[in-house]
Amino acid sequence: MTGREVIAPAADAVAEALAAGRAVRDAEQGPAPEDAPYGLLGGALGHSWSPRIHRELGSFPYALHALPDPADAADLVRSGDWRGLNVTIPHKRLAAEAADVRTPFVEAHGAANTLVRLDDGRVLADNTDPWGFAFLLDGFLRRHMGADASWLRGRKAVVLGTGGASEAVGSVLSEAGAEVARISRSGGPGHGYGTLVEDHGDAALLVNTTPVGMYPACPASPLPAGILGAMEGLRGVLDIVYNPLRTGLVLDARDAGIPAEGGLVMLVAQALRSSELWQGVGLDHDLVGRIAGELERGSMNVFFIGMPGCGKTGAARRLARMVQRPFVDLDDAFEMEYGETPAACIARDGEAAFRDRETAVLAAHGADTGLVVACGGGVVCRPENRRLMEQNGTVVMLDRPLDQLSRNDRPLTAARGVEALAAERMPLYREWADLEVRCTGSAEGDAVLVRSLLGL
Ligand SMILES: Nc1ncnc2c1ncn2[C@@H]1O[C@H](COP(=O)(O)OP(=O)(O)O)[C@@H](O)[C@H]1O
Ligand SMILES: O=C(O)C1=C[C@@H](OP(=O)(O)O)[C@@H](O)[C@H](O)C1
Ligand SMILES: [Mg+2]
């Protein structure tokens, strides 16, 4: 189906622009590690947002040191020519031990995420995760409860997970005066997931500190669906996972009408605190919201939905080109994956078989970030497709009068009639959409409009 439409402007220019974009991204990953004053030390780092964040905060160049071998990591900590390091899995403990001086939190918990080179050359180990979580918590309580951290005094907070991050989170909650219950999947009576509702149904806040729900196994939740809604005292949910932007837990909470936020603000806030320590100055704390907002805008996918033939493919392709993002047409992706068009699949195996495969194709792209995606018109026929989009995406409905819809090669429109399809689907498109756009008359016009409405 690729190439069904003729698109005029310069494909070469687009390719060049995309290549330039990649070059910028590469530069953001920093210079050769040994030359950078700042950086991140970990085992396998993959794609990290830290170089981008610290660049905005003024701690730049910032390099990635992926050193799986503890001996190499210790060597960098002891003898590297750096001013500041962040530390992540699996070296937080090693960093705490190898430092010359430790803050009380690091002394108590034995894990550091920030190393600071002091003026006299010694290494200070600190942990800015509690600061980052306190920042997230404070904003959350202000936004949703109209209160500060004192709201937690005398209330119960449940923390999922018992690892290092749970200690940072637990310490902040305890300090605010909450009664903290830390539970884990393998915890015994009162400390497990199985009896969560009975044991802790009165908790006002629930925080996930486990990696369950993290990319690429997403959207997933550490808790079975329905549990949150059964916890009668629950007023808020936080998940420190930030990729996807909305985890399964966050989506479940919102479905149950409970305010919920992910961990992106914590990620940026802990980085800001590290940058303050390295630079020895106070930074503007409004930077946290600004940087988190930019990261969120850049990584959100844009999904086009709407009636078959309304112009999703054309508008999405043009928008992708305008904002230099990868474009995915799910019908094309389907064809590449299964070797036949959706129309051929529906004709041979029927609609149900097509829908199963369509959901699998959507799942693969929904976990990705920064895409512009044209869905097939029937994407709303499967309820589970909604969160595959929502986890990382903004959903845009294109609305075009039924008598103007294209009918070429649209088997379901032909079989059932456009009115019947519309009666079934229009309410769903409207319900799923974050934004409804009335078609302007050209795919180009639609793309320009969506771009400006989404601020891309
Ligand atoms: N906004 C629009 N106004 C008028 N015609 C359009 C518009 N967008 C697309 N078209 C035409 O309608 C047809 C269907 O567009 P397409 O993008 O394939 O729709 P969809 O992906 O929603 O099924 C194409 O032939 C295209 O040229
Ligand atoms: O409406 C539908 O059920 C369908 C729409 C088509 O996509 P377009 O909406 O892009 O035509 C394609 O996925 C398939 O033929 C089924
Ligand atoms: Mg299409």
* Residue-averaged pLDDT: 92
Largest sheet: 6 strands, mixed
The CATH class of the largest domain is Alpha Beta
Count of domains:
3
CATH topology of the largest domain: Rossmann fold
Which CATH architecture of the largest domain? 3-Layer(aba) Sandwich
Structural class of the secondary elements? alpha/beta
CATH homology superfamily of the largest domain: P-loop containing nucleotide triphosphate hydrolases
Strand content: 5-15%
Please give the order of strands in the largest beta sheet: 2-1-3-5-6-4
How large, in whole angstroms, is the Cα Rg? 24 Å
Which regions have little confidence, pLDDT < 50, spanning 5+ residues? 1-27
Q: What small ligands are held by the chains?
A: adenosine-5'-diphosphate, shikimate-3-phosphate, magnesium ion
How would you describe the shape? globular
Give a written overview of the molecule.
This protein is of the alpha/beta class. The chain folds into three domains: 31-126, 3-Layer(aba) Sandwich (Rossmann fold), CATH 3.40.50; 131-262, Rossmann fold (3-Layer(aba) Sandwich), CATH 3.40.50.720; 300-454, P-loop containing nucleotide triphosphate hydrolases (Rossmann fold). It has 20 helices and 16 strands. The strands form three sheets. The chain has a six-stranded mixed sheet with strand order 2-1-3-5-6-4, with helices on both faces. A five-stranded parallel sheet has the order 8-7-9-10-11, sandwiched between helices. The longest helix is centred in the N-terminal third of the chain and has 18 residues, at 11-28. It is globular and about 75 Å long. Mean pLDDT is 92; it is low at 1-27. The structure holds adenosine-5'-diphosphate (ADP), shikimate-3-phosphate and magnesium ion.
